[in-house]
Amino acid sequence: TAELPKPYISSNNSNPVEDKDAVALTCEPATQDTTYLWWVNNQSLPVSPRLELSSDNRTLTVFNIPRNDTTFYECETQNPVSVRRSDPVTLNVLYGPDAPTISPLNTPYRAGENLNLSCHAASNPTAQYSWFVNGTFQQSTQELFIPNITVNNSGSYMCQAHNSATGLNRTTVTAITVYVELPKPYISSNNSNPIEDKDAVTLTCEPVAENTTYLWWVNNQSLSVSPRLQLSNGNRILTLLSVTRNDTGPYECGIQNSESAKRSDPVTLNVTYGPDTPIISPPD
């Protein structure tokens, strides 16, 4: 009986697709009067529904291979005069792409900021990425960078991951909202020196801004209900009817939208009054 050569493992598929392909590993060369043995991760072959031996033990078939399979396989040949073992073989399991993740997700952006989105999908081989904005292709990169964005950059951003080996595509969409930060408001007045019990004063919260809520504070309190106070023009204008000497304020206005809130500097009124009926002291 001759001494055996060093065996080696041949495979019918060294790049199986996850949970789909079976792989047949064959111990080469075919030699008469030889016993074939298999080792999995340096252990003798375990009993498993995923492993099947041929009748002569020369071929080991592996089923349902998961993506994280780092198992290494070795075969051994024995005859009465020698024992030889092959080099180890591992499988390169193809998988994915999984549904990609876009980060950061659904963050509101202020106009003038830079938009920097990153896409990642688990995949072997590494996925190829494409970006679409409102359905229109933008570029084939893993990161999408748009400097100095405007409200017009709001919309639907889709990342597509493609696996060239499995031929599969997966997509994820995120909504990007770009808002304009509100300016600091200020109060204009039609009369900052009103005369008591005579003049009405109109205070206007400037500037005019779309999709904005206007608020008022008097003496640091939110506006109380009073027949002498009238709000108009979507709360942007506060009218004081028949001003009294106690109406000096201060008055503040605020503007807010879903992303920001700003408050004006306080304004006081110089109410002109008197003279009241004079008091002579001491009295008679």
Automatic annotation (TrEMBL):
Superkingdom of source: Eukaryota
Origin organism lineage: Eukaryota, Metazoa, Chordata, Craniata, Vertebrata
Coiled coil: none
GO cellular component, one term: plasma membrane
InterPro entries: CEA_cell_adhesion (IPR050831), Ig-like_dom (IPR007110), Ig-like_dom_sf (IPR036179), Ig-like_fold (IPR013783), Ig_sub (IPR003599), Ig_sub2 (IPR003598)
Gene3D superfamilies (UniProt xref): Immunoglobulins
CDD domains for the chain: IgC2_CEACAM5-like, IgI_hCEACAM_2_4_6_like
Protein name: Ig-like domain-containing protein
Annotated source species: Macaca fascicularis (Crab-eating macaque)
UniProt GO molecular function: protein tyrosine kinase binding
Family per similarity comment: Belongs to the immunoglobulin superfamily. CEA family.
Keyword flag Transmembrane: no
SMART domains named among the record's database cross-references: IG, IGc2
Keyword Signal recorded: yes
Annotated PANTHER family: CARCINOEMBRYONIC ANTIGEN-RELATED CELL ADHESION MOLECULE 19, CEA CELL ADHESION MOLECULE 8
Limits of the Ig-like domain: 5-92, 100-174, 183-270
Record's keyword terms, sorted: Glycoprotein, Immunoglobulin domain, Signal
Pfam families: Ig_2 (PF13895), Ig_3 (PF13927)
GO biological processes: regulation of immune system process; signal transduction
